[in-house]
Amino acid sequence: MKLFTGLILCSLVLGGHSLFLSFLGEAYEGAKDMWRAYSDMKEANYKGADKYFHARGNYDAAQRGPGGVWAAEVISNARETIQGIYDQGPEDSKADQFANEWGRSGKDPNHFRPAGLPDKY
Fold first, then answer.
1. Which residue of 51, 83, 94, 107 could cross-link 99, Cys pair, CB 3.0 to 4.6 Å?
2. What does pTM read for this prediction?
């Protein structure tokens, strides 16, 4: 009986460890997705495209799983907090957060895509 209990306990610990590692991997890949969207936004330097890149980064990260959703939410909230302090008003921050949540919820980021943005993005 002790052996059976020990095996069950070990499988639970190892299974939980595996889930934690999976979450961390998703979070890492999600953070990379967010960075890629930010880099593309800076490279494109296209007026009116910021909401598209917000939604796209969050969408791509969320597709990774719960860890990606977590990473996207943390990064988005931190970015909006920092930007709100320095250079944008509450209306723009609300619009950015709307685009962030749109993407994280799995909705198509192309909803925010401005006309004329190169296909590369």
1. 51
2. 0.83
